[in-house]
Amino acid sequence: MAQQGYTVEQMISAKSIAARIEDLCREIENAYADTSKLVVVGLLRGSFVFIADLVRELDLPVEVDFLEASSYGDGMESSREVRILKDLRGEIGGRDVLVVEDIVDTGHTLTHVVALLNQRKPNRLKTIALLNKKIRREVDIEADWVGFEIPDEFVVGYGIDYAQRNRNLPFIGRVRMED
Ligand code: PRP
Ligand code: MN
Ligand code: MG
């Protein structure tokens, strides 16, 4: 592989992710058991792998929509300024909504998106994040469902990038910088 100045070590296997998604889906099905349709909103780009696996495991009538938010650019640090680059295609007023994130780090992205979507008066809006890096939180927000709590390490794979790379790894890995 081309020199990229860092290596990636597996942290959470594809198999562990799949097993955790099965459990999460049973909980989501219970929470939205009476829904006529759940609008599952993926936050691009990071959630594209997670949402694909999630909706295929979820035994509920769903609509899939996407919203693109960006705060990191190509760096390792959050800019804390969340930009909406692409809005939802559909209306969510009066609808049941599940916002899907790959990772909650400082919390700025999810806080910003939830506030924006709540202005549209959904019926029930809940959130799910595959990974939670609680130690890094700067704003008081928790996803309703979390796949895995992780330590303060830069992670990639399963949709998550470092400078737009490694999103296609099938597992979650930690980045180790080379000296
Ligand atoms: C990453 C990640 C989350 C967000 C979490 O997105 O996918 O959306 O940062 O960080 P926060 O809790 O500190 O806000 P990024 O802005 O890198 O865009 P991307 O999903 O397109 O990679
Ligand atoms: Mn993201
Ligand atoms: Mg990113």
UniProtKB/TrEMBL annotation:
GO BP, one annotated term: IMP salvage
Primary localization class, coarse: cytoplasm
Biological or metabolic pathway of the protein: Purine metabolism; IMP biosynthesis via salvage pathway; IMP from hypoxanthine: step 1/1
Name of one Pfam family that matches: Pribosyltran
Cofactor: Mg(2+)
GO MF annotation list: guanine phosphoribosyltransferase activity; hypoxanthine phosphoribosyltransferase activity; magnesium ion binding; nucleotide binding
A GO CC term assigned to this protein in UniProt: cytosol
Keywords of this entry: Cytoplasm, Glycosyltransferase, Magnesium, Metal-binding, Nucleotide-binding, Purine salvage, Transferase
Catalytic activity line of the entry: GMP + diphosphate = guanine + 5-phospho-alpha-D-ribose 1-diphosphate; IMP + diphosphate = hypoxanthine + 5-phospho-alpha-D-ribose 1-diphosphate
Residue ranges occupied by any Phosphoribosyltransferase domain in the UniProt entry: 14-162
Main EC class the enzyme belongs to: transferase
Stretch forming the signal peptide: none
CDD domains reported in the protein's UniProt record: PRTases_typeI
EC number: 2.4.2.8
Compartments, as annotated in UniProt: Cytoplasm
NCBIfam families found in the cross-reference section: HGPRTase (TIGR01203)
Family that this chain belongs to: Belongs to the purine/pyrimidine phosphoribosyltransferase family.
The protein, known as: Hypoxanthine phosphoribosyltransferase
Organism ancestry: Bacteria, Pseudomonadati, Pseudomonadota, Alphaproteobacteria, Rhodobacterales
